[in-house]
Amino acid sequence: MFDAESLTYDANGLIPAIAQSPEGEVLMLAWMNAEAVRRTLATGKVTYWSRSRQDYWVKGETSGHHQRLIEMRVDCDRDTLLVIVDQAGPACHTNRRSCFYRAVRDGGEVEIMSPMAGA
Amino acid sequence: MFDAESLTYDANGLIPAIAQSPEGEVLMLAWMNAEAVRRTLATGKVTYWSRSRQDYWVKGETSGHHQRLIEMRVDCDRDTLLVIVDQAGPACHTNRRSCFYRAVRDGGEVEIMSPMAGA
């Protein structure tokens, strides 16, 4: 049986979770505590712990941009999660598909992704 | 100009960096401080800060499994990096291509990736 307590959490009780689409796009990184891990697995709705709000954050609950869990993966050190997700619309609060929309090129920073139309 | 000091580091002066292959495979997550970010960009050799050794860690320096930087990306909150890398052989110290080789399936944990042959 998978036990959320078997993961390694940081001093704040949190573990980073990378969200990736089945097509391979890294969408975002956010944080979970053990209860958020359990809720994500139990409900299939990817649930983070919001460090700014200090509360559970069911992704998409207010924005409508849900993340449905396809599979949760655990790394070798058990201190990072990779969640493969079916992402509705943009993952980023800027309405971009991914939060990683800036690239360092030629010593400067450039935007490589535009906000999604109608998102 | 891109300035490593413009990123948001945690209380330990670190920022998580997700390493991904150009084909889309998430290989690992490790940590950088501002100087590791600068060294990575300056040398093209992906350089982390080892929290266990409390020292710089040029990926592959001892294992030979180098990571050559293809592109560094910055997320919306500037508190996570995504590095697209050319990974020589396995990224994981277990000789697996990726550190995320365990999946939670049917309530249990299964290995979904074997160590690389000859790695």
From TrEMBL, chains A, B:
Pfam family, one: PRA-CH
GO molecular function: magnesium ion binding; phosphoribosyl-AMP cyclohydrolase activity; phosphoribosyl-ATP diphosphatase activity; zinc ion binding
Residues annotated as domain Phosphoribosyl-AMP cyclohydrolase: 28-101
Cofactors: Zn(2+); Mg(2+)
Subcellular location: Cytoplasm
Gene3D superfamilies the record matches: 4.10.80.70, Phosphoribosyl-AMP cyclohydrolase
Enzyme Commission identifier(s): 3.5.4.19
Sequence positions that bind Mg(2+): 75, 77, 79
Function text: Catalyzes the hydrolysis of the adenine ring of phosphoribosyl-AMP.
Protein name: Phosphoribosyl-AMP cyclohydrolase
Organism: Paracoccus zhejiangensis
